[in-house]
Each structure stands twice: as structure tokens, then as C-alpha cells.
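[09:14] KT: can someone run the structure on this one? pasting the chain below
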Amino acid sequence: MSSDISYTPEEVAKILKISKFTVYELIKRGELTAYHIGRKVRVENADLDRYKQRAKGASSALSSASSSFGNSPSSNTNSASDEGLVICGQDIVLDILTRQLEKQFPSLRFLRHYIGSIDGLNALYRGLANVVTTHLWDSDTDEYNIPYVRRMIPGHAAMIINLVYRIEGFYVAKENPKNVLTWNDLTRPDVRFINRERGSGARVLLDEKLRVLKISHTSINGYTDEEMSHVAVASKVARGEADVGLGIEKAAMQVNNVDFIPLQKERYDLVIRQEDLEKPHFQALMSILNTTSFKNEVMGIGGYDVSHMGQVIATV
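[09:31] RB: done, C-alpha cells below
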């Protein structure tokens, strides 16, 4: 019977077409039910089906939430019980922000969608998300986010609001035994790289740098090997399964046996539709970003520059 079937995390990852690390994160967060047999982890087929149904339900909620926002009276701050607010992005700062919003709107459903920058902008354009984050570097302008928002949300005014600044760099083993310091070092035959998935800000940064430096991605050992988060990349380096990966400084602070080589300061922004700004939940979001208590909480976890938090960077 199908109800008796169980899967390993690796098998679940293949079924869902995500990384094994993401499966473990889903289990850790309680989103996917699993059990242990000794040290082995198993997921029942029925629990996997329930997770997929919930994920499909969340997608439906995104569409209905987007539609209902258009008819929501902005003067009624507690009329959102039948709505949903979808926040896309992977940074822990978004989890803190979501908790703050939940306190102010306990009847509003907040859905966190852990996807990369380009997928987030696509979701915003298609009406499947309400707040997305992006850290996409454009090599032609040496600018973050504005060129991408302008191209990917055509005909719809969007506001770009700074959340934090972060440092992108290389994750390497302790004391950097391979002496990896520059983008060109990634092409060395003795260096194994671990990449991020297509559409993530780190992947775009890498590809843009390779284009500017005229480095072929085929010369990088491991370019096609992908993980779905900064922590997953850093963890793979820590385990010795790769020599170098690219990601933010915060993840290096969370993973043992990894050193961080800073390369570039990036602007990590929120993007919302301008038409939503006057609605109560978005006004609350802007208010939270500009409170000293929220900024202090983010500064307290380390790895972030909050000096421009809450500032409107552009309307495009």
C-alpha cells in the first residue's frame, strides 16, 4: 500500500526537486513530518503527500490574497482575517520581521516562501507574492536591484526599500588551505566550487563577475553543483565536500570550520507594489523597519548593516 511507503531525505529531495539540505530544513521547521529509525530519518508517503497539498494550498492562497488586497479598505486595520500576506526571501531577518507583523495582525495569515531573488520578483509580477527581497547586482550599472525590478515588473510601479546591507564573499576551509582569494582562483584545477541555484542573488553575482572578467563557467570545477541556501553552501565547504562557495558573511558565522573572504558589499532590499503601500499591513511593515527596537534586534544577531533600513531606495 502507498501509505506504507517511506522515503529517505535524499529520495524526498529528488521527488520535490530540491536539495537534501532543504529537506532537512523543512523537517527541522516542522513543515514536513519525519521520524527516526536509529540515526536514519524517514518520511512517510502520506506525510509527503500532506506537505505537497499544503504547498499547493499556499499557492492558491497567494492568488486569493493578491486579489483580495485590491478590494481591502485601507481604513480598517483589522479587516484582514480572510487575507494572506506572502513574504518571499531566505534571510533570517525576514523571519524576525514576520513575527513582528504577526503580533500586530494576529488574524492575518503570513506565508513565508523561501525562494531566491529572481523567483521572488517573478512571483510579485504574477501576483503570487506581496513582499519580496532581492540582492541582484547589475554589472553594466554597478547597481543593485533597480535594473532588475524595472525589467521584471514592467508596467507596474514598484517601491524598493532597503532592509539591510550584507557582505558577499567566499566560504573556505579554516585558514584557507587552497589560498582562494579572487574570482580567477575558481578556475584552478585543484579548487572544487559549490554553486547556488539559478535565480539566487549569489548566482547572479557570480555569473555577472564571470561575464565581466571573461571567465567561462566551464572552467570552474563544480559550477553545476548547486545548493539552495547560503548555509547549505557553507556547510558543504565545512564538510570538505567543496573547497569554496559563495554567500553572505552571516552564514559563515553560523557554520563551524569555515572562514570568510569578503568580496563585495551588497544591498538587500524589499520590493512591494506601490499600490499596496497605503494598506495597513504595509504601513505597519514600514513602521517596524524604522523602529530602533527592530534595528537593534537585527544588529544583535550580527552580520548586517542597518544604517539605511527602511529608506525608500527608488520607485520604478
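[09:33] KT: thanks! The longest strand covers residues 158-173.
[09:34] RB: yep, looked fine to me
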